[in-house]
Fold this sequence. Notes:
The complex is a heterodimer.
Chain A: H1 2-11, H2 15-20, E1 30-37, H3 44-50, H4 52-64, E2 68-70, E3 73-83, H5 88-100, E4 106-108, H6 113-126, E5 130-132, H7 140-146, E6 150-152, H8 157-174, E7 181-187, H9 190-205, E8 209-216, H10 224-232, E9 237-241, H11 244-257, E10 263-266, H12 273-279, E11 287-289, H13 297-310, H14 318-336, H15 340-349, E12 351-354, E13 357-360, E14 371-377, E15 380-386
Parallel strand pairs in A: 1-3, 1-4, 5-6, 7-8, 7-9, 9-10, 10-11
Antiparallel strand pairs in A: 2-3, 11-14, 12-13, 14-15
Helix pairs in contact in A: 4-13, 4-14, 5-6, 8-9, 10-11, 14-15
Chain B: H1 2-27, H2 35-53, H3 57-86, H4 90-116, E1 129-132, E2 135-138, H5 139-161, H6 163-173, H7 175-180, H8 185-207, H9 218-232, H10 237-258, H11 263-277
Antiparallel strand pairs in B: 1-2
Helix pairs in contact in B: 1-5, 1-8, 1-9, 1-10, 2-3, 2-4, 2-8, 2-9, 3-4, 3-8, 5-6, 5-8, 6-8, 9-10, 10-11
Amino acid sequence: xxxxxxxxxxxxxxxxxxxxxxxxxxxxxxxxxxxxxxxxxxxxxxxxxxxxxxxxxxxxxxxxxxxxxxxxxxxxxxxxxxxxxxxxxxxxxxxxxxxxxxxxxxxxxxxxxxxxxxxxxxxxxxxxxxxxxxxxxxxxxxxxxxxxxxxxxxxxxxxxxxxxxxxxxxxxxxxxxxxxxxxxxxxxxxxxxxxxxxxxxxxxxxxxxxxxxxxxxxxxxxxxxxxxxxxxxxxxxxxxxxxxxxxxxxxxxxxxxxxxxxxxxxxxxxxxxxxxxxxxxxxxxxxxxxxxxxxxxxxxxxxxxxxxxxxxxxxxxxxxxxxxxxxxxxxxxxxxxxxxxxxxxxxxxxxxxxxxxxxxxxxxxxxxxxxxxxxxxxxxxxxxxxxxxxxxxxxxxxxxxx
Amino acid sequence: xxxxxxxxxxxxxxxxxxxxxxxxxxxxxxxxxxxxxxxxxxxxxxxxxxxxxxxxxxxxxxxxxxxxxxxxxxxxxxxxxxxxxxxxxxxxxxxxxxxxxxxxxxxxxxxxxxxxxxxxxxxxxxxxxxxxxxxxxxxxxxxxxxxxxxxxxxxxxxxxxxxxxxxxxxxxxxxxxxxxxxxxxxxxxxxxxxxxxxxxxxxxxxxxxxxxxxxxxxxxxxxxxxxxxxxxxxxxxxxxxxxxxxxxxxxxxxxxxxxxxxxxxxxxxxxxxxxxxxxxxxxxxxxx
Lengths: 402, 288
């Protein structure tokens, strides 16, 4: 069998064989961890920042420490990776393959809300716990009752929208936001549409006046009409429920148009190191989705290890949560063994010590402590609002673009 | 007025994206589905030169263009020429080249992932406002537009007034008769394909100064280019330029006056209308 595989590898016949070939050790010595997420396709840019590097970091660290402690014996971790090309059909096939062919002991949750939900029935059918990270939805209650092994770590849509409203309301109370005028735009994709729908009534309830409200298609190559129109509406605050390419595109146009607002918010990718690198001084004061407490010792140690192992910096949001979700999985395996039902039960009933602080899933399988809004302050993206995490910084007003 | 200018700037970008494909499809008869990857590769190169050595993308294109030309020439000679030789009809070549270049696009994405990683890449180049007739525009877009105009003019002039250019046009109009009048169709097809690749990669280097790209972003550009080439008429440079500008202006008009959410709908409506009333494209010839 081994010979066969090696020959196949030499011939370079099948990529799948290549993935399986390194598994030469006896199955009982290792814990096989399956992973499927985009390496190509529209979500690859995000998953290659927040998702894959953490799997590499975690497995490297576990193996350097001698492996997972399963019932007193140390077992090395072996990761089998698949690229789903940001295609839900491929995600499902890969989960199936991981479960039946690769006989993975555990599978890391996929990347992105849609892909996580697409894979949930299969995780459920094969009995795997699914500790989802990048799945932000208001369906947490119904999903976790339908799929009891599905856990949520990053929060709900409404929490994200309402904390943005809270941040702005607070700025208004403090007098740093001098008016009620909000320009709100969103990417016409599930994530943006859901957030805009959640945000609209919340803004109105808080007494804000939405003076510009529009959507634009995913992949729009020129966002200058959007920013020009937003500027013409003369808003006090600009809110964009955006995805990575448009987060960059909108901000570049805002700089060029010199959009004068006291609060400027873009959603996904604002927390990426590439964003701070790209806009440098102009990024100062920009609000965005997510956040961490970058001053905590745990995060600092994590960021240093991330850079040492993967050669890249973690982002200031989902990266640390992805790593934490793997810590949860590790602690549950070490406490409950390789029995998947026992691991699920353990995750539901215990509290875990992660780099973000304690994490538990006692109500609706949902981790209720997470960061919702962050802000670039002095070159670092600090969390400024959360649902119960420590270390939030006071919000600053946005002063121009240089 | 500012809407027209924004639209033209966007149209210039689209022209850069689509011109190369037109040369490859219209002249070399290769429906190159890896066109977008070549664009992203050009963008990567510009990004790399800019972040490593602060070299302006406007200079990088003088490196990108010849390298892309050589690379595409090799791709044609090694990978596509066997297909051309064995194809009995144009239809068969089209099917074969679509399959082959579709595969090539995966290889290209894989290579770029391995070489550059899957992260988004962008950089700040000329991201400053410039005032034209009282309105502000991004300098990098204006620069790309000017470059697009120059590239289009040079290409158009070359195709119309130089001997090799005329041969390429002859090849595009009638490959069979071109051989009869002593045009070396094989080597000329390779040149046209390589030239198309060079134009695309140059376009990629230019658009990377204002678009955020990643290793697998290519397919979106291939699709846009395909629409523009078909709207303009296969094999006609003028058609591609007009169609690109038209698309840019229509998208911007809709985004500014109606709703940015409808730009895609507007683009495809325009596409359908053109296909309905001029199925051969704006400047295409009716098949006889």
